Amino acid sequence: MAKFKKILIANRGEIALRVIRTAREMGIKTVAVYSKADQDSLHVRFADEAVCIGPPSSAESYLDMSRIIAAAEITNSDAIHPGYGFLSENARFSRICQENNIKFIGASPEMIEAMGDKSMAKTTMKKAGVPCVPGSEGLLTSLEDAKRVAKLIKYPIMLKATAGGGGKGMQVCNNDAELAEAWEKTRREAKAAFGNDAMYMEKFVEQPRHIEIQIVGDQHGNFCHLSERDCSIQRRHQKLVEETPSPFMTKRLRQKMGNAAIKAAKAVNYEGAGTVEFLVDKDRNFYFMEMNTRIQVEHTITEEVIDHDLIREQIKVAMGIKISGKNYEPTKHSMQCRINAEDPFNGFRPSPGKITVYHAPGGHGVRVDTHVYAGYTIPPYYDSMISKLIVTARTREETIDKMLRALGEYVIEGVKTTIPFHIQLLQNEDFRKGNFTTKFLETFELKPI
Hints:
Strand content: 25-35%
Strand order of the largest sheet: 13-12-9-10-11-14-21-19
Oligomer: single chain
């Protein structure tokens, strides 16, 4: 396939700016799309061209496929990079790009469909020999069917929406009474959020770690993994801190999980950069959770420890270039803190508004991915993440100390941010020792300042 001449980025904020930077280094022109609320964002300023695609509402702008395709056509773009979120894992959009002879820099419709339906994905992974959490075979047909499966795998169980994501459409149940109560409630929530109330069930893994493996596959049947990321520090299933390598990882476990992730990629003939996510229990047994068929927010830390540009890799794979097929292990330690415009002392309530003062940290091993600046107004319509602070050092201890120094230098005034939360978290003794699970923040006490 010939080199792309122009890529339209069907996204906003820091990920759009991230793609623009790599494309420019590769000599490829870029097109930014933006809603009226994002006209002052840096991704609009630094793209070669910019097209307004609608009002602030995501449904009328970043999720409007016809407007994005129209923008690609009028700018003669030959490829679309979806970033993460929005349409990045939308099989219909991937198919529409194909039908309009525009290369979708991501997974094919078939791959997205195979992995997007959680029940189907689990069945595919079982056939491929990837360890899965014990649970229902396919979708549950009724509450009675759910009770039968729960009896087989034993409580506690997790009731899950097959189309779920982002912590929605899921409920832990410890007995038949709780299952009966959760059945209708969880289905209603799933129907409202995803338009699909189909449910399945899994054994609830206690004291779990959330560890994912970065994989890459090309159009020629080559696959590799780029080691792991520990994403266990979460609040309501939303990641706040990611690091690599995981403090819970062993060389043997990394090899086993890496091999399993490659099996998963091969099972769907995966093309592009993707992530296979696992739950790991206290005995280091691991179970397939889901596969994300896109670039992840936390791809940055993988880039830092293996010195590899994953956006460049995505673009090269989409152009038909072969990957090396080499598996990687981290040679350093890297950690990312998501800086959100939220008030951590008020239930993490969103804090949109105008940034009056902005100063980003710097120094050796410090990276800031952001689209904001002094004078920028954070709109209230989208995800509250405004920046990603990434630091890299030789050891985990050095990385934590460097991150604390960088957080201390980071000045954002005019809005509330999660910087104080991160500072307190990194000073916590258990966190520093690596003693945490996905439930860590349920008991973590934030001290008022």
